[in-house]
Amino acid sequence: MNTKPSITDSNPDKPRTTRLSPTQKTGRLKTSLLMAGVGNMLASTVIAGFLLGYFVDYLAGTLPLFLLLFGSLGFVGGIMKVKDLMIADAKRQQKQLLAQKAERKAQK
Question: Which of 3, 33, 40, 52 has an alpha carbon within 20 to 30 A of 74's alpha carbon?
Fold first, then answer.
């Protein structure tokens, strides 16, 4: 009697592996690159805010005032930009999942 393991059989010692389609690989690569760039984007907006604030303080002669103001604005702007990028990526992933579900449903 030759019995093949079914899909419902689970073996905790052997992790279940799935092959990714080229579209899924591209999606994961895009997400990974986005995550790598988010930290740089946040840091660059904060640094740009501090530099702009320092320059305005240098011209106005009020050293810590604009430095702190523009640094804070750079931080808030960076957080808003990161949030927008994350929302756009989540929408892209959701759209991709819906397309994959529709493709699987059409194949049945």
Answer: 33
